[in-house]
Fold:
Amino acid sequence: MYRHILTVLEADTTEQKALSRALHIARLEQAKLTLFISIYDFAYEMTTMLSSEEREQMRYSLIEDRKEWIADILEDFDTHGLSIEFDIVWHHRPYEAIIRSALACKADLIVKGTRKHDTLPSVIFTPTDWSLLRKAPTPVLLVKDHDWPPQGQVLCAVHAASESNVHQSLNKELLTSADYMANKLSANLHVVNCYPGAPATIAMEIPEFDTQNYQASVREFHEQALDSLMNTNGHIHAELHLREGMPEDEIPTLAKELDAELVVLGTIGRTGLSAAFLGNTAEHVIERLNCDLLALKPAGFKSPIQA
Structure:
């Protein structure tokens, strides 16, 4: 499934968890690795006393320094037998440079690490992380600190009851990817489908409304939809979970209960005002996960960034 992995290195840290994870996957997949880093210093662009040729030479020197830095980093890892290339670019928008590089080298997967908060037991997600989730056409693996132990747990989140062809196609892709990763990692696969509860105010506004019966009907509907989805993908065997509540609440809770090392979910890649007002489920979920996230786009998704 993954033949070429673009790995985003962190320029200001020696802890390269994305590199460690990418090397793990590359060995499982016999995949090629491209180690990527974008650098930019506005001061170099504003140095009016230098000619364009001199500025170009300065940029070249910085890029060469980064190549040596990457080579030093790799000395701490076992890279024997792996095909590894470097891609170091001068660009002022890291997410755009990452996507362009992924498209140019036809990467199947982008792997990027997340950052720990300095003072809180949480993770900081940079604008680059959000932009990749929204705009990258390539699957994005955001790496946290959770290990990938043998016989672990992989959790796949689906929207089984959706009548949208886009969602149904995405469900199939999610199941396929999650099942593939679970098999590669010798892990147990879990599939979760969340469904909404009855509005809290409905019983007050309509006293004769049977909330209990309504909830039972909603659960049965989603249970049948999930069973139908799994029957359609009969070669995939997983433990099924139906959770009442919002996905951004229930998926992280279940992932913690299972001690999952990987959550696989889809993001439709909203941008602009729709993203600002509606948000993306993946973005709400990832902030509360204590494990890695593999985010996939629907088939036919067109990135606003071109190669």
